[in-house]
Amino acid sequence: MVEKLRIPISRIFVCLLIVFICVSDNLWKDKSQIVTTILFVLGVVLVGIATLGRLWCSVYIAGYKTDHLVTQGPYSMCRNPLYFFSLLGALGVGFFSETFLIPLVIIIAFSVYYLFVIKSEEAELTKLHKSEFEIYLKKVPRFLPKSSLLNEPEKYLVRPIVIRRHMFDALWFIWFLGVFKLMETFRELKVLPTIFKIY
């Protein structure tokens, strides 16, 4: 049940966060150009890694999520690489705000909610794949990838139609860069009000 609400809850959270960002401005831009530049560049790097990582995951998982247990590629290094790269991307988007508060809110919300999602999905996978998943649980870490476990096949059958849909899911992090720049322009033009000033 928790995993079925994952997308709607994530969308609601993102909408609320956008509203908050629309009416807030960062205090660093008046104090340190170096800090704002570092935060923005960090955001770009994290979003780049997240986008490539999510595309990599999509090659392996797209169309196979319930057919069989996926344990190769990024799924050989950790059990939830899609969520791991999503967290990196969400943090990257948070750093686009050039603040520390927004990424902190994102990491707390992600950690609290996705812990329940992951546990719920693991219970479902245990029912579907039984002993095969139990072995996988013992061998592969839940969230932080372990590169020494990487196992990739020489060939892998993919489903192009499903991957095409997943590509758009992977690219939304990059689109947020444009959204942030647009909000920044609107704020400078006084179209958006500044209610909060945050670090």
> Pairing-aware structural class of the strands and helices?
mainly alpha
Oligomeric state, counting identical vs distinct chains: single chain
Strand order of the largest sheet: 1-2
Low-pLDDT segments: none
Q: What's the quick description here?
A:
The chain is mainly alpha-helical and 199 residues long. The chain has helices at residues 6-22, 28-31, 33-61, 81-96, 101-139, 160-188, and strands at 24-26, 196-198.
Topology (SSEs and partners):
Layout: H1 6-22, E1 24-26, H2 28-31, H3 33-61, H4 81-96, H5 101-139, H6 160-188, E2 196-198
Parallel strand pairs: 1-2
Helix pairs in contact: 3-4, 3-6, 4-5, 4-6
Task: Note down, in words, how this protein is organized.
The protein contains 6 helices and 2 strands, in the order H-E-H-H-H-H-H-E. It has helices at residues 6-22, 28-31, 33-61, 81-96, 101-139, 160-188; strands spanning 24-26, 196-198. By secondary structure, the protein is mainly alpha-helical. Helix 4 (81-96) runs antiparallel to helix 5 and helix 4 (81-96) runs parallel beside helix 6 (160-188). The model has no long low-confidence stretch (mean pLDDT 85). The longest helix is centred in the middle third of the chain and has 39 residues, at 101-139. It has a single domain (27-194), classed as Four Helix Bundle (Hemerythrin (Met), subunit A). It is elongated, with a radius of gyration of 19 Å.
